[in-house]
Write a structure and sequence with these properties.
There is one protein chain. The chain has helices at residues 3-8, 10-26, 42-52, 57-72, 104-119, 135-142, 180-187, 195-203, 232-236, 241-246, 275-297, 306-329, 331-362, 377-400, 406-420, 427-434, 438-450, and strands at residues 78-80, 83-85, 90-95, 147-152, 159-164, 172-177, 208-211, 216-219, 223-231, 252-257, 301-304, 372-375, 424-426, 454-460, 466-472. The chain is an alpha/beta fold. The strands form 6 sheets. Strands 6-9-3-10 form a 4-stranded parallel β-sheet, sandwiched between helices. Strands 13-15-14 form a 3-stranded antiparallel β-sheet. The protein has a two-stranded antiparallel sheet with strand order 1-2. The longest helix is centred in the C-terminal third of the chain and has 32 residues, at 331-362.
């Protein structure tokens, strides 16, 4: 009989083993799925972008995808159950401290959107939202015109006149932040009170009303996307335990690259932009925009094919089974994951819609006269593959990094020290390295041993005496 069985009994031992396996499955960072990248538009443009930078391939794909989603905007939607779904997304490229070129992905997005706006300047189309991080700036861009009151004349001839405000309404677009940490800093400022709740509200595409002192602001048919980049360290310094549960972090998909892959190329080793290719990309984005506009103008429905519905249902049931399995050993963690799975599950339809519009534009499908467009099984397979990557990444980050309570922070500090020391360390020296009181240290170690994160053993020293050692079991 093992020591675990003797100490806790068979049932407790089975629970500990189930929890250990669950932690291992959630602690593996997934590889980006190439199957999620369509041959139409995305793959050739992605290959071209990679000649100009050695930014991570997955960052560049996310950048291109967010660019495309912004161009499509609220011009397309589909009914999913009781919800009307639009292709807006909140996405974040997270990089380890050694990973370079993290902001390059955001620069590509803003650059191609600017060129597309220039190509459509006669129509005065805009895709880029104000990136100041100001609540008022976003509201001012997105709100409908108000009735303005003014007075003309003097004395008895003074008359009151009401007229509609002249302003550009931009209810659809993307706000890009090359340094997402600065956006989070602005989010917490007193003058931006209400910005976070606004971001949560408009994500679902519902019309928004804001009561001011003497009037109301209305935003109809919003389709706001947000895209940014940050180091993981800067991001973690600015979010809290409450963010993990409030719905804010749940609405974001995460693309995480922890380490630099190989030597960075110098600036002269990267290719310069190819003028012909740049024109082709801009032209393709204009075509995607016009295709989405035609779908809107013609009132064409977007629906799932039978194959796409079956693909989606299988993915949903698989994720539910994963949550149920995790819940057998860790109900709290399963409960946290459930909120993230629900948001990511809806993203499958958002992603599939983008794939549909891009393929429709790329193949020059004659949209006028159609009553509906169907998301194919292949499109949904790609959407499921992409969201599956984001789902596993969210699980990984929640398990390994999104730990904000004092006890979780202490546990992570011990784990980080042990990792730097090769996985094990003398208990007394480990206590000294933390700088904590012995009582606080003992609590972290004992809880970590119970959760099978740490193990304690004795090791014979050169002097012949035995020393207590702490070993990290999960890295």
């Amino acid at each position: 009989m093992s020591d675990i069985t003797e100490a806790f009994g068979p049932q407790a031992a089975r629970l500990q083993e189930a929890r250990r396996k669950q932690q291992l499955s959630c602690a593996e960072l997934p590889s980006f799925p190439d199957a999620a990248i369509p041959d139409e538009f995305f793959e050739p443009v992605l290959q071209y972008m990679q000649t100009m930078t050695d930014a991570p391939r997955e960052f560049l794909f996310v950048s291109l995808f967010m660019t495309t989603a912004a161009v499509i905007g609220n011009r397309v939607s589909m009914q999913v159950g009781s919800q009307k779904v639009k292709p807006n997304l909140y996405g974040l490229c997270l990089a380890g401290s050694t990973v370079g070129r993290k902001t390059t992905a955001v620069s590509f997005c803003t650059g191609y959107l600017r060129k597309t706006e220039d190509a459509l300047q006669d129509e005065q189309v805009r895709f880029r939202m104000p990136d100041s991080g100001s609540h008022e700036g976003l509201m001012e861009s997105m709100r409908d015109p108000r009735m303005l009151t003014k007075f003309e004349g003097k004395g008895a001839n003074r008359t009151r006149i009401e007229e509609m405000e002249q302003k550009e309404v931009m209810s659809s677009g993307i706000a890009c932040y090359s340094e997402f940490a600065s956006f989070l800093d602005n989010l917490r400022k007193v003058y931006n009170k209400g910005l976070e709740s606004f971001i949560l509200d408009v994500y679902d595409g519902n019309s928004h009303t804001r009561q001011l002192k003497n009037e109301q602001s209305f935003i109809k048919n919003p389709c706001l996307s947000i895209f940014g980049a940050s180091t993981l360290t800067q991001f973690l310094q600015r979010i809290t335990e409450n963010d993990k549960h409030s719905g804010f972090l749940q609405r974001i998909f995460y693309c995480y690259v922890p380490e630099q892959r190989g030597k960075l190329r110098s600036l002269i080793e990267n290719s310069t932009p190819d003028e012909k290719m740049e024109e082709l990309i801009t032209s393709a984005l204009v075509n995607i925009y016009r295709t989405a506009s035609l779908i809107e103008q013609q009132g064409i429905r977007i629906e799932l094919s039978e194959e796409a519905a079956a693909v989606y249902q299988r993915s949903y049931e698989h994720e539910q089974a994963e949550l149920a399995e995790i819940g057998k050993s860790d109900g709290d963690f399963s409960g946290v994951l459930m909120g993230y799975q629900g948001r990511l599950d809806m993203m499958k339809f958002k992603v599939a819609m983008v794939y549909l519009v891009v393929e429709t534009a790329d193949r020059n499908v004659a949209v006028p006269g159609l009553q509906k467009l169907e998301i194919s099984g292949d499109m949904m397979e790609r959407a499921v593959a992409l969201i599956g990557y984001f789902w596993k990444t969210a699980r990984y980050l929640l398990m390994k990094h999104f730990k904000f309570s004092p006890h979780e922070q202490r546990t992570k500090r011990v784990a980080d020290i042990l990792t730097r020391q090769g996985g094990s360390m003398n208990r007394r020296k480990l206590l000294q390295r933390t700088g904590w009181k012995a009582m606080d240290f003992d609590e972290v170690i004992s809880t970590g041993i119970e959760a099978e994160l740490f193990a304690e053993f004795e090791e014979k020293q050169g002097s012949g005496q035995k020393a207590k050692m702490i070993k990290l079991l999960q890295q």
